[in-house]
# Entry
Amino acid sequence: RRVHGKIGFALTNGRCASSSLTMIYISGSGQQGALATAGGAPLIVQVLNATTNKPAGGVPVAFALRAGDAIVKTRVAYTNAGGYASARFVYGKLPLTSLISASVAGALNSPITFSVLCYVPYDTTFRVGLISGCIFLVLVAFAVVFAHRLGAPLEGIMILDTLSIDLNDRPSHRP
# Structure
């Protein structure tokens, strides 16, 4: 959705002055990506002359991280002849939403905020769960052996309802 402003006013050093530029959101917000991967599409804004609605070329647009842990690769981008400026980013290392702003000093609608969501890929979650599960089973086995050596009256311990550890060194499988 494009929002155009014809003319605006801003306070500069306590005095009222007309704003000559306006910013418009173009695209890039709402993206989702895996941990520590490059953003799929650039974050794009357009800067227009507020009185003529014509593109303003050569205007510096500052991109900055406002929340989260994404990495903004483009800190300052200058608008092209069409008034467009874009920035690239990398998703963070934590599964959360990052907010990145684009701003032009004194411009109407500035800053514009982009929201990008970082998630943990399914296969990474599965691997972490599998490794954690294996470590748990090994720790349980060590605890059983240690308890048996201390003379605890254990006949056997059930693991996962089907695998049984027989403390008399006779593994068995229950149907």
The longest strand covers residues 60-67. The chain has one helix and 15 strands. The radius of gyration is 29 Å. The chain has a mean pLDDT of 78.
